[in-house]
Amino acid sequence: MLKLEARPQPSRLMSLASPLLALALTVLIGVVLFMLLGKDPLRGLQMFFVEPVKSLYALSELSIKATPLILIALGLAVCFRANVWNIGAEGQFVVGALAAGWVAMQAGPDTAWMGRGIVVPILLAGVLGGMAWAGLVALLRDRFNASEILVSLMLVYVAVLLLSYLVYGPWKDPAGYNFPQSISFLPVTKVPRLVDGLRAHIGVLIALALVAVFWAFLFRTYRGFALQVGGLAPQAARYAGFSSRAALWTALLVSGGMAGLAGGLEAAGPLGQLTPYVPAGYGFAAIIVAYVGRLHPVGIVFSGILMSMFYIGGELAQSRMGLPKSLTGVFQGLLLFTLLACDTLIHFRLRWQHARVPVRVVGH
Amino acid sequence: MLRLELHGVSKQYPLVRANDRVNLRVKPGEIHAVLGENGAGKSTLMKIIYGAVQSDEGRIEFNGLPVSVASPAQARALGISMVYQHFSLFDTLTAAQNVWLGLDKALSLPAVTRRITEVAHSYGLDVDPLRPVHSLSVGERQRVEIVRALLTEPQLLILDEPTSVLTPQAVDKLFATLRLLSQRGCSILYISHKLDEIRALCHHCTVLRGGKVTGEVDPRQESNASLSRLMIGAEPPPLQHRASNAGAVALRVHGLTLARLHPFGTALQDIAFDVRGGEILGVAGVSGNGQQELMAALSGEDRRAPAGSITLFGRDIAAQSPRQRRTQGLHFVPEERLGRGAVPNLSLAQNTLLTRSEAVSRSGWVDTAAVRRLAEHLINRFQVKAGGAAAAAKSLSGGNLQKFIVGREIDARPRLLIVSQPTWGVDVGAAALIRGELLALRDAGCALLVVSEELDELFEISDRLIVIAQGRVSPPVATAQATVAQIGVWMSGLWAPAPPTLQPQDEHAEA
After folding, report:
1. Among A133, B124, B191, B346, whose Cα sits 20 to 30 Å from the Cα of A64?
2. B137 with B291: CB under 8 angstroms?
3. Which residues of chain A make contact with B353, given a CB cutoff of 8 A?
């Protein structure tokens, strides 16, 4: 009989092995799923795990998805470690895209002197837009003790409606045949690409640099430490004299800024204009990315890539195998659930035990 | 027939053998002491009996029948109850709701509330069943736990350090309760390190050291010295208490009045006292009389104190944060070790960063190697038994964590050290070490304010005493001129001249 037994210390090994075990289980369930759908499971897995990394082009497409996921998840990791539950990164992403898009639309002959340098104010605007949206959450929480979970979530819908209003109204392209979309941004405002002919852009490098920055912030700075103490033991933080308000604001502004940066990169990158389809679910998927990555910057890189593979795999499964695209969501959900289940093994271990009889006599 | 018999019970943890072939025999109605240092394996042994931990080998007989206790629920069904040293109460629920949760039988909440009042009354334990647990002091929480255990009418009651937060009068009451239980046939396993108590109360004593039984004696025939030898292999060195050379005033509290922060808190009223460099001022009192509130105001965790009411070396610090106060030499050891004095899930090294910033550069970078060295230094200097600087705070026993936290603050060379319950739940050896360190700090010129509910301790180390009752403090009295009886009376709030009329909120502060 298998028995769960509490470990005296949480297992370090298991906290690393658990995501891998969860991935294995997800694949296993995926195989069963493909078989039930009457599809070749090998081909199905190929769509998810081979095709997205098969060629340079595929890798470039992967990076387009992974960059916003990693950026947003980095910010969320800080938030969640501080016990601040920002689940509205999607809204901060949208407002970041709006702010960046607005700056991009100002480009013209007057800004020609900036050259490609105009990308910097565009991305900064994205960061500030995301920060402002998250700052609202912080303000309401700080001032009125409103639940940041509800406020941040509901602000997502406000942000999406704001986007719709702008692209259906004031920002609609006059020459756009009445489609709900802004003008296409000038080429000079586009986020520079890494290689000609591929869509991958310098956002990848920004994301990787920020992974290092966040790692240092969380594990090597006093501020980062104080923030996490506030999340782990609020009383200890008060005892130490770490301000819980500072932690709240820092966490929300940092995560809002990261989501806004991702939104700016998306608007001035692959999208090149504002449409009602800016919100692609990155803000919500990044919650899973953050957790699968153990709220650790390096782990987030891996989980971000994995989630992107699910995105692309889902699209490929739809176009090449005739499977519904919602398979992406199924895989993402499966991964999160199996991870939560496997995490049990961090604090408990499985032990094989003979069925207990009521009277146990053991010699010594 | 024996009530409980253990044969060769062993438990191996990854790093330590907590119990090594332990035998234990408890007769019906016997008050049986289990004596041992921190980490001697007392708590593990009790958890095995209570079913919270499974032994690796050995067998247990209860009322002559071999049993295998797989869970606390099964233990309660057998008639075994336990009061833990670390309480297991939900903060947001009331005392009655907590008790209700732990009961196996289907009683209604009002019925449970009535039973609590009855049982509490019949055993002389003051418990208000309707108060939320978060508003209770440590002492009050313990009473809830004891009442909870008594409600199941156990045949064997396990008490882990039950008297650590009671007044002398309350200890006498508890002992009367326990003797009554014992007369009615209930066996009691009494875990303690207080030799006087064991000698006064217990019929039999099993001594553990390093997980092994090192002696089985009748404590009534033993002396403190002989019990000590069994427990730690030597007698604790007597404290060297020289007369103090009190210097300049370090901390002056004047006109400190604070409204209650929550409905069941205690309001502080016109608190005034001085602490001088080179002296230890002891604060006596029953828990729940304003100690928590006073400590929070002095540490800076509660910053509502009126301007000018708290001055540190002549400077008004009433509005300063704990960190600002710390930079001026005020260090504080809170009574809650896990969750306040230390973050349970962080390593000892990381926990040094809560109050120590030597390893933090001016620009806010943390030198992790320096942090680890500091933790290792504390572990060595204060003889903390831990799996190194990387061990999580929650993996330490209560006494060892206390040594670490007190050590962390002492090692910071404070100019004023405020300590709440310095030796709560700590064994003789560790308590002697901590008290010795406090005295050494005093002799080095530091001012100390020690809040304790253990009068013996205060009499042992303090130079002057004040008593806190119902949110007021008494005038100071030199320890040499004070008597236990007098302080006991003061603890009820009766010191001359008679205090002004009681405020309504005093009804919850008990004597």
Report:
1. A133
2. yes
3. 222, 225
